[in-house]
Structures are given as C-alpha cells and as structure tokens.
Amino acid sequence: MTLSVQVRHRLGNFRLDAAFEAEGGVTALFGRSGSGKTSLVRAIAGLIRPDEGHITLGGDVLFDGKRGVFVPKHRRRFGIVFQEARLFPHLSVRGNLTYGRWFAPRGAVTEELDHVVDLLGIGHLLERRPANLSGGERQRVAIGRALLAAPRLLLMDEPLAALDEERKAEILPYLERLRDETKVPIVYVSHAVHEVARLADRVVMMREGEVEAVGPVSDVLSGPGLATAANRREAGSVLTGVVEAFDPPHRLATVRLQSNRLHVPNAEVGVGKTVRLHIPARDVMLATGRPTGLSALNILEGTIEAIAADGEGMITVRIGCGGDIVHARITALSGERLELAPGKVVFAIIKTVALDLR
Amino acid sequence: MDWLTLSEDEVTAIRLSLLVSSVAVAASLPFGILAALALSRGRFFGKSILNGVVHLPLILPPVVTGFLLLILFGRKGPIGALLDQYFGIVFSFRWTGAALACAVMGFPLLVRSIRLSLDAVDRKLEDAAGTLGANPAWVFLTVTLPLILPGIIAGMILSFAKAMGEFGATITFVSNIPGETQTLSAAIYTFTQVPGGDLGAMRLTIVAIVISMAALLASEFLAHVIGKRVNFE
C-alpha cells in the first residue's frame, strides 16, 4: 500500500507545498515546529481540505483537487493519535477503546481488544475515566483507540511532544512493539531526532512548508540538512550496523559498521542482530593527531567532508570514516585553532552512543 | 389546619400548571437544540437576526408577546388558521395555547443555556470522533450531546421555572379560563381580585414555593450527578 501525497495549501502567510510517497512501515515527517508537518498530516487525515494536489492510498483516491474529490475524514479510516490524547471524557477507557469499532465496516480486519490492551499495557485501566489517567496512560489509550478502529493507516502527530522525558521513555517501547507487531503503515510526525532514529524506516524532512529530503533514516539524518531542520542540540549521526560480539563481563557490545567497529556499553543484544546507533554531534570531539591515554573507547579516523557554521559560535563538522558518516559539533574557535578544513584528516572521539534494536 | 386544604379548583390549577410547563419544555427542546446549534456552529446570512428573534421574548413586555401570539396563532391568524385546517391543532383559549405561550417565553433561556455549553465543547474531540469513523450525525449523538447534557438540563429547568411563573403572555393569549387556561399564577391573580381571597392566594403561593424549590434541588442534583460523569480533562 503506497501512500502518495502531493498538496499545496495556504494558511495565512504560510505556504505548504509538499509531496512524498510512503510504503509500509514507519515514515517519519520530520522538521522543526512550524515546518508544516502537522498541516500535512491534517491534510492526509481529511481535517483540512488542501487548495490543490492529490492524496491517494493504494489506488484509492482520497483527495484530488482537479477532479474535486474530497473523501471526508470519517470515510478515510485513517487512525490519528494527536499530541494531546483527546479521549472522550464521558466514556470509560473501555468505551474510548471500542468507540471506533461501531463505525468500522463489516469485514474489516479489526485487532482484538485483548491483544491491543496487552500490547499497550492498559489492561488495568479499562474501567477508569480518562480524567483519572496520567499523561502517558492517556496517550497509550489514544493509540489503542486509533488502532482498534481498523485503520488503513496510522497517523501520529507528535504523540510524545506533550509528555515529559520519563513519560516518553514509558511510551517509546510500546510504539516499537506497535511498529513490529502490527501491519498498519504509520506516518509519524516528530521534531525529535532520537524518536525518529529509533522508530522510523524512512524520513521525510520538512522545512518551511516544503520537503527538503526523503530517504532512509540513516541517509537523511546524517545529511547536511539536519543541522538546520532539526533542533541543533539534538543533531547527530545515525548509523546502521550488525552486532559482532558481546563481552558479558564488561557488558560491552561490538558493532560492525561499514568499515569501522564501535563499542557500545550496557547493550545486551544478540550477536548477529542489526542495530541502529545514534551518536549526538555534541558528544563527538575532534583531534588532529591520534589521541592516546584517553578513556573513550571509540575513536574513528576520517576525513573532513564539510563544515557548517550556525552563526551562534558553533560549527558542525561532517567526517567521512570509510563510508560511515559522523558529525561533530564543536566551537568555531576550536575549529580555527585546529585549522579544520575539508580534506583534512582528523580523529573523532565519540563519547556516547545510543543503540536501538532494529 | 383547615385553611391549608386545597380546594378542587386550586388542585386543577396546580395540575394544569405542571402539565402546561412540562409540555412547553418538552415541545420546545428539539427546537431549542436546533436553534442553539445554528447559533453556535452555523455560518449563514441573518444569524444575528435569528439571535435577535430568539431573544426577543426576554426583552419584550410579556403582554406584547401574548398579543403577537394572539395575532399569529389565533383561529383567524395566519399560522393558527393553517394549523387548525391541516392538523386540527387549536391554540386559542386552550391549554395548548398556554403551553405555547410558556414555551415561547422560556425559549431564550433554553437556547442560551444550550448554546453556552455547545460553545464550550472541545471541537478537537469531535474531530477525533470523525477520524474514528463517526459521521457528523453520530459525532453529535455520541460525543457532542453527552457533553452538552448538563447545559440542556440547566436550560430545561430554567425554562420550566419560567413556564411555572409565566403570566402576562398567557393571560393575554388564552385568557384566564378555570380548568382550561387558568394556571397557578393566574389563579393567584384571580384570588387577589376578589374580597377574602387572600387565604387561597397564600395556599397557592406556598405550593409555588415548594414546586420552585423542588425544581431547583432537582437541577442541582442532576448537575452534580452529570458533572461527576462528564469529567473534563
């Protein structure tokens, strides 16, 4: 099932002019706030009618500006999880979860209530009222509610943005299970690099109402556009690799990348598994000679490919290490002192690596 | 305690008042919800005119409203004649006319209360229901209506109270016929017009106070129960 979107829409001074295609799996719409991600997702859901363009899902035309086709939201069968849970306050959690069932067409493949409840860990909440739930619980119920309406596509509009870090950490594993255990394609809107790196298969990067880049996560999140589109503090590199070995006494996994090996602490995953590594750019130091006597386990040798200044006294250096791309965010002063320039050989000292199972 | 015993005419007046008020509220409720929906959600030409018409009975002297009803809904009136001819419904000098007068007088209160609660409904919840597959009619029945229920009940109680106390428009439109159009208020008025009628007036006054208090307590109780059920996030 291919979701094909091409819309133009004006909202006051803001112009949305975006096109992308998504296959199954998780497609992330990624960009800063105000980049048009939410408007795009609202257009896909049928909550706004775009000025021009078309939206189709696997041959089913949902919107066609030229032919005047606009399928209303209740006939699209796209589940949405909003930033705020939007649970019905007059219904119990069970009532909320089964709401969409009344309207699902006969013969639609519906998930079993028990299975979804289990998947999201909300069995103990069924008889409660939404007002008595925590933010994280509400959001899990909202995800279950969308899932139980037998959606053909699941749209998630920054489902974690309104939650604190602890709640986010509580929900992320459920989202991963959802991705792995259901066959519903997901469009996931986010401005957080680590969420996208952890969940998505493909990324559509948005900037000022337009699509800036589309592609697999590791390509787009390592591309030059990241430093501008994403929250700079979170910018980093995403690398895919295979676990080669695990050293139980030191709890250290060795991950083979294209031409390098990285050691990741406290990551007990099976040997042979494909994993994704996220290296925040601010946690990478640069040296012009191979450093010795350092505690850091991961030091990669590479060549500077590009340097981008952000005008705030910081520079982002892109280093190619035999096919593996690493970004380092350092002060402009350090850059001058080390005389960094494209083509120069440097050593990237990586302080932290986050590992996600794929 | 003999003076407390209600005469047969008085009981008739009380029963008539309760009947007229209940019918007035029940019959005006669907129109009240529709008018509130139009005023809260609708975007059409003449919306402020509709708003004015709905609120008119609140500002006009009741006698004027009663006279207008007499002209429009009387047997010879343009609307009254039609209703008589095609549906056999007669308003003039019947208790149904009293109910119509009470419904019209209570209508602004009913609409206002429902409209305020409609304005307070989070439209995002309705959007969410729509994306779950509910068409607009179902969204209204399963989300909007339960959420505005407290406002509807408050409006019904207000309009019922208004109907119980309605006097001017009723007496102008359908007169003061014992057993047919003589409501509680009209009966009290009649008592005050005859020598020695004070005792009767006092008895009915006590009844009026009891009914009003009961309605008020019932509305408080219902608001409490529903408020508990509809707990907003």
Q: What labels would you give this structure?
A:
heterodimer; A: 358 residues; alpha+beta; Rossmann fold; OB fold (Dihydrolipoamide Acetyltransferase, E2P); 2 domains; six-stranded mixed sheet; five-stranded antiparallel sheet; 37% strand; globular; B: 233 residues; mainly alpha; MetI-like fold; 79% helix
Structure in words:
- The complex is a heterodimer of chains A (about 350) and B (about 230).
- In chain A, about 20% of the residues lie in helices and about 35% in strands.
- With about 350 residues, chain A is of the alpha+beta class.
- Chain A folds into two domains: about 5-225, P-loop containing nucleotide triphosphate hydrolases (Rossmann fold), CATH 3.40.50; about 235-355, RNA polymerase II/Efflux pump adaptor protein, barrel-sandwich hybrid domain (OB fold (Dihydrolipoamide Acetyltransferase, E2P)), CATH 2.40.50.100.
- In chain A, a hairpin with a 4-residue loop joins strand 5 and strand 6.
- The longest helix of chain A has 17 residues, at about 165-180.
- Chain A is globular.
- Chain A starts with a strand and ends with a strand.
- Chain B has one domain: MetI-like (MetI-like fold, Orthogonal Bundle).
- In chain B, helix 1 packs parallel to helix 5, helix 1 crosses helix 9 (about 185-195) and helix 3 packs parallel to helix 8 (about 170-175).
- The N and C termini of chain B lie far apart (about 55 Å).
- At the A-B interface, strand 7 and helix 4 of A face helix 6 and helix 7 of B.
